[in-house]
Amino acid sequence: MDSSNIIRGSCNCGNVAVSMTKNVFPSSCSLCHCLNCRASSGSLFAVNIPVPKDAVKIEGTPKVYVDTGGSGKSVHRHFCGDCGSFGLDEESCGKFCLIGQIT
Ligand SMILES: [Zn+2]
Ligand SMILES: [Zn+2]
């Protein structure tokens, strides 16, 4: 695959990385201010970028915290167990990963 067509980001220590092709990266994102996103992101809001789950490649082995979202559905929050960077949220619909603080 042409590497210039790939968006890649990693956690603070580099042990967990995510990548996807540019064509699946949306032009807009949402900010979630719910209490759980605030706690997970360590900020007043989480930046959620919806991308198709199948289009995201994960390198490394993130830890997963199964959380319950405001809708009552489960959210799998993936983060680096070494540096603690919060990376992906997997929605219970299985359709999207939401990318948090992996840059
Ligand atoms: Zn890390
Ligand atoms: Zn939230």
Automatic annotation (TrEMBL):
One of its GO terms (molecular function) is carbon-sulfur lyase activity. Gene3D superfamilies: glutathione-dependent formaldehyde- activating enzyme (gfa). Residues 7-103 form the CENP-V/GFA domain. It holds the Pfam family GFA. Keywords: Lyase, Metal-binding, Zinc. InterPro entries: CENP-V/GFA, Mss4-like_sf. PROSITE patterns: CENP_V_GFA. It comes from the Eukaryota. Belongs to the Gfa family. This is Mss4-like protein. It comes from Lophiotrema nucula.
